[in-house]
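Lab notebook page, bench 4
Experiment: in silico fold of construct C2
Operator: M.H.
Input chain length: 231 residues
Purpose: comparison with the prior construct
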Amino acid sequence: MASAFPASGATAVALLSGGLDSATATALAIEAGQRVIGLSFDYGQRHRRELEAARALAERLGLAEHHTIAVNLAAWGGSSLTDAALAVPSDGVADGVIPSTYVPGRNTVFIALGLSLAEARGATRLVLGVNAIDYSGYPDCRPDYLDAFQTLADLATRAGRAGHGARLWAPLIHWSKTEIVRQALRLGVPIEVTWSCYAGGELPCGRCDSCRIRDAALIEAGRPDLASHRP
């Protein structure tokens, strides 16, 4: 899951949402000398503004390729990120409670498509910006889930059966948001381009849990100038 990269020059596919975490994970892969291909998803999210951020990040980070594909997870609802009738949480994170921003099956779908692209391009890594400790407790952002998915990937692909399938690489999985910000600053990630707000507006709302956690980390890391613009 967090194994070292192979020799410089290998290809990696990065799931690039447009957010801070995926941008930082992608930059870590670039730092390791990888030729990185970005993959983003238009899944019917209310915060589609993140797709603009993904395109800008792909250009600023100099990715070898960048693909955006549509996968309409909004069709059956079940999440405040895909159903405008549900409120995006802004009251803080409760221990043991998975928030309404969880999108059913999202990472399972995204990782499967990422592995498809990785096998087609001969990539040795699938780079994921998932994090298990800082915010949501989503079931598909946990180490045991990624370990199980790696087993599936090794069985489900021709490359995996041959012993050289792509490895899932989630370098941020145990990092706090503040550590992610610090690494993003070190790597020169254009944080001002990234998008984290879940509310769906043209400017960050500064109130949703995602905005508040990002802002607190930026302030703690000494960059309050990059925090959300309050209405």
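Observations: Strands lie at 11-15, 35-42, 65-70, 125-127, 167-169. The first strand starts at residue 11 and ends at 15.
Next step: discuss at group meeting.
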